[in-house]
Amino acid sequence: MDWTLKRVPAEDVRAHMTCLSGSRPCRAEPPARPSRMSATDVADWAWKHTLATGHTRFELIVSSLVECEVRARCE
What we know:
By secondary structure, the chain is of the alpha+beta class. Helices cover 20% and strands 32% of the residues.
């Protein structure tokens, strides 16, 4: 069988970011929101955090919903 993973287009990409700058990492994160944050939301937060603190190292986690499509292979 052949298979592929395809992103489910109706679902938004979700993202989370943590500041890792400093010899003792800052660990700041975007404020909690009731809805999921988009990659754009966390990028905006990181830019504001960098301007306010000078910190430039972040851990970025991005996820999306995917679906496995399986096709029978003819032999």
